[in-house]
Amino acid sequence: MRARITKDEEASVQPIPSWPTAERPRERLWNLGAGILGDAELVAIVLRSGRRGETALDLGRRLVRLGGEAGIGGLSRCSAEELAALPGVGPAKAACLLAAFELGRRASAAGPERRRVHSAADAAREVSAAMAVLEQEQFRVLLLDTKHHVLAVEVVGQGGLDHVVAHPREVFKPAIRRSAAAVILAHNHPSGDPDPSAQDIDLTERLVHAGRLLGVPVLDHLVIGRGGYVSLRAQSLVRFED
Predict the structure, then answer these.
(1) Structure confidence by residue, pLDDT tens digits, 119-156
(2) Domain span including residue 16
(3) How many of the other CB atoms lie within 10 Å of CB of 53?
(4) Contact call for residues 60 and 47 (beta carbons, < 8 A)
């Protein structure tokens, strides 16, 4: 039996347009990039609306949970009928979800051959163009397979003008989710000067240690500036995994 939503519960749900701008999924995508959004936020953007007593983000969270341990992967394997039968979805929203999942599969299948990272210069080419022009610090992680092909590049931290918080939990979450064999870290200096700070070195040492415990080796950390970058590995500033 479906649970009924009371009038009090319906009134307590604040519509997304009334939220602070920094908390709205669509605005977060525009300001921070799609890579930093969670699965539920991306689903909410695709759905565009929720239902009575439930915002699009609430609905997105519920749908991702329905995917079980596979999360969004499990949801993507649902049939049209299964999706449409879910409370708050229906045929129209089910069609939007199915179209988004199919586009993702086609884009993946049609994409170019995965690039292989042989050096810091190869890694820098994956991130420098986008990160060098940012006005705020941002932390990204390159996910590599066993042969050091790039699986993905994910944004795992967003900061201010002179610092970015990169918690080990957030740094390694996408690596574990994608079964990455190794990672390369990267963050930018909006000042344009790529010289690593003492805080950069300390953070890198902690992340290398965390990666060692998780079995996901950190191979390098790049600091991106305007017109250049610094590899902490090349500068022998931190002892990385081989």
Answers:
(1) 999 999 999 988 888 888 999 999 999 999 999 899 88
(2) 7-110
(3) 18
(4) yes
